[in-house]
Amino acid sequence: MIETIIIPVIIRPINFKPRQIMKAQPDLTQVEKDKLEINPDFDFREIAKRPFEDITPNELAMFKWSGVYHQLQPSFFMIRVVTPGGRMTTHQFNRAVDLAETYAQNELCITTRQTLQFHWIRQEDIYKIIEGMAEIGITTKNGCGDVPRNIIGDSLAGAGPDQIGDSLKLIRWMADDDEIQNQRNLPRKHKISVASSNDALAQTLMNCQGWVPIERNGVVGWKYHAGGGLGARPYLAKTIFDWVPEELVLDITRAAIEAFRRHGDRRRRAHARLKVVVDNMGAKKFGDVLIDIMKEKGVHGLDSIELATDPVPAIGRMSINGEAVIPQQDAGKSIVRIMIERSELTTAQSRAISKLSDDLGGGIVMFTNRQNIELHDVPNENVEKLIEAIHGAGFRTEGHEHLPDIVACVGTTMCKMAISDSPDAYHRLYNALATDENYWKAIGTLRINITGCPNNCAHAWIADIGLRGTRTRNAEGGSIEGYSIFVGGKLSEAGKISEYLCDAPTEEIVSTVRKVLDTYLENRNSDAELFVDFCERIGIERFKELVK
Fold it and tell me: For 55-64, how does the pLDDT look when each residue is reduced to its tens digit (9 = 90+)?
């Protein structure tokens, strides 16, 4: 535990360039005016001294550029840190735990973009979190806002048995690149993924930019995808380039951000994503636009880039489906996986995990996009002892990528946008279904994602079963909380957005989901037929008939 932080000078998260304040243009939307008039590099020590009522809504919205969100509850905030690739040392993790114990009600939350969030931060304590994390090399800059967000990969990066090349190296390049990180006036948020192999684990197809390694004659290059994104209007990425030499990866990443800056819709925020730009242009034209931008910048070697012969992606299926232990590429070491219930960690739990990583692992904590944790570099001779200790600390290691491995957003507990209580839905399903080991093992691989509003922060569009919050009017003139249920989403092969199956009030989601799963068990053609393949084989209309 740490004492109150006293720092004599203000520590900025990373190098901020001075921002020129431009005069607002009258034809711009208010959000675009704010981005020109309000400097997002707030002095949160000064903010701590101001009455909450004196902070304008426009300023509150711009706090996001520093990773700070105003919660549903007045004068309380959420702070999101940036952990490229989802990787932290235990030293860094311990600092987050110390800060959470002092300022965040003894709790941390793992996000679907492989990083940590602090909740219930008081206005006067915001700067203490930001400065405390900056001291150990973790920033909050670009945690939120119309910027390049935390760059993700798959949790096996740097260790997985099938990795090609070094995806963590590329992630670090992008995270440390000023030209990328100082793009702070984009039309909307911008998300990048770098995979360690041709594997859907990195969620390539739902990101604005997605890099997948390939190898030719012993040389590692990269296949480039762009135009993915979920939200209320989901799009899957297209293949833009079949081959990019590694030395040009940064140039293309920068060019795509520049193309988004030039061509993104700044009048309609619902359309202001790179996914819309790529969809409107098509893969071939978008690739040409990137080449032209790089020519403007004087980039050399562009002839070595190969345009995609087919824009339809061919992403491999997820290589892990339930394993508690995964052999690493380095002989003698393993990855041990820990399931985190509802993505929430108490500080006591966090300390236990960190100590186990130090004592029996390699001092590395990896956050996954299913809001769990992996411990890397575990000597094989320690694996059995480590698993026993994990279970003794109250965690489970069984059930990953199966029914117990449910993803849910914070819902109406903290989010202003939510219309349903996602954590409540999580606990209803988990308590009723995930504790029946025989049942979930019979079902096999299954990913359930619950999102509290159409923005789809919890990725319901690409889950085997996705629940999206709804409200339905009742006879008394009020409304009833419930969920629309979607099935059949995936991020492998060319990907597929899940399809609407039915609606259910919250009180009936357990019985409804059970009916969906029982229907699958009764009608699959063999025990080997995965739920996602069953959905594709029978089609959505037949599925609706079966669950009617």
Answer: 999 999 999 9
